[in-house]
Amino acid sequence: MMGKSTFISAALHTAIVLFALVSFPAAKMEHMPLIAIPVDLATPSEVTKIKAGTKDAKDDAPLAGKPKEKKPEAVREVADKAEQPEEKPKAEQKPEEKPKPEVKKPESPKEAAPKPEAKKPEVKKADAKKPEEKKSAKPKQAEATPTKPKAKPETKRDFSTDRIAALLNKIPDAADEPAPVLPSEDTPRQVRGQSGGTEMTMSVNEIDALRARIAQCWSPPPGGLGADQIVVKLRLKLNEDGTLVGYPAIANRGSSPFFQAAADSAVRAVYQCQPYTLPSEKYALWRDMILNFDPSEMYRAG
Amino acid sequence: MNATFDDADPRRRRPALALLMLVALAAPAPAHAQLELNITQGTVQPLPIAIPDFAGDGSVAPETAREISNVVASDLRASGLFIPIDQAAFLEQGLSTTSVPRFDDWRVVNAQALVVGRIGNADGKLRAEFRLWDVFAGKQLAGEQFFARPKDARRIGHIIADAIYERITGEKGYFDTRIVFVDESGPKNKRMKRLAIMDQDGFNVRLLTTGQNLVLTPRFSPSTQEITYTSFEGETPKVYLLNIETGQKEIVGAFPGMTFAPRFSPDGQRIVMSLEREGNSNLFAMDLRSRRTVQLTNTPAIDTAPSYSPDGRQIVFETDRDGSRQVYVMDANGANQRRVSRGQGSYSTPVWSPRGDLIAFTKMSGGRFLIGVMKPDGSGERILTEGFHNEGPTWAPNGRVLMFFRESPGAAGGPKLYTIDLTGYNERQVATPAFGSDPAWSPLIN
User: A219, B37: Cβ pair inside 8 Å?
Assistant: First the structure.
């Protein structure tokens, strides 16, 4: 009898130890997502945002296959070289290209001059005199932002672009509301607390809101044959107030004639959208980011 | 650490998050992570562009300068891809092509692009220069200078509009082009039909024939110097070749029967057309240099409306060999004939797009006439417009816009020319002096 109960006891203990061994790593893993996910559901406004995001996702889902394949390629191409140096050759190229048609006449040297002037002051301002840039940038945006909502309905009325937009733009109306919804103040604290104060990520809401915001500003060129294959990779740096630092760098290249047009449209979007309203306590995460502008799904829809 | 947030599908988001967490666990967090986002959605809308009146430099009347900037603005507006901003909103006045604009002033009025131009006189010629600025980025996108005869002032506007269009969209423009069409005047039962040519925007109309004989289906040669068309001059309708500059005219080929529906090959060396005999019509191609003719189809049916693919290797045409009119494609030598139209109804007047990706057609279905496009294999059919009677699409040289004619019902009704772009939304009427039909778009004029 004693032997039997000892045996049962030993068996049970072994089972418990085995169970613990097997299930602990799993338990740990499950623990991690739990940290992040409840955070997204903190306020009612965020719930609204999540709904908008989910709607968005439904449309994307069946089409998501291709862009996914493509993007890594585009990213790979440039991931290594990318960064800032790329911007300089670009800037140099342009002045070279333009004077050509103008060489025809004697005045052209004079006139060619303003071009570099026009560009350089802007770039320099941004790079060198940061404090000044911030000051001067703010009023600009303050002016620009109020005009935007006005302009939108206007453009939609003309040329029945509202119908084009409705057709091509899959972002539901809810997502068109400006002012991206951001987590309440305690959200980041939770994240920081549970992950030992070092782990911080942008929540899915924040990402979606940023994406929806840029979608409002981005009007990709109508394109021609093969234009849907063009992905433009922009690297932008932001000030803490959400304004751009300097000129966004185009971090990839394309041989297609549509690339320049596509790159310009992306840069315009990024300029027009500023300032970005992003959680200031996560500034370290968004101060320097990369945006891949990929119109393939939009063209397919059209 | 690069964290890529992909689309917001929760099913895919969760593994992505889990993966992120794993990565976070595995490696100590770096000083700062770089956020990477994929932007897959945008809002397609016309680009707000500011086009202040071009300045005259004193040697040219201000009206001439203003007319040129007006041409630029109306071309861009008509494309549906730009919205010229009301000049009353402009803050900065007196812009010069030699100085940098105050971009802040233009951002305030929500202009994304700005065109500054100056017109002058140089040795009896017009000298036009313009600069295109990106307002948000504060940089110049294009800057060019042209010389032209004073009477070509409007053409300068079209050329500048093409340059702007090309720089912003990445595709070739189509504003410096012409349209040849059939000008129709007089009452419906006694209509006079004359060949006419005009600029793409309806200006500078010039009549090419006197109206004594009925004319049909004019088509441009790739050089834009010649047109081919069907005329009822003799006893039977014949295909003619007309040099627009010299007025020289000749019959194409010495065929016994009626010839019609001609069209040039993309290299301009051949004309493909229909020849009718005993109720049947078959397709023939004639080499314009050797005058040698090759028969391409041989069926007891009506084969007509042939149109070459831009590489010249294939021909799309219309035939009723299956009972109703349908669209067929074959090799340029007549081999490999196959039906590509699949939908309900009958299909006619197919035209291959200059960029090769689409075939435009007229479709009759349920008593309506539709203009649509399909891929060369017949898939992806899309209807762009419909109405009481639409017919005869012709492509703009960049393959983004179609022109066609629409007939209005009733005794006072008649055909008018319209354009529509590939989205199917930007439909516009083209002004003509009287009624107009059978338009054909020229290639870009050089």
Answer: no
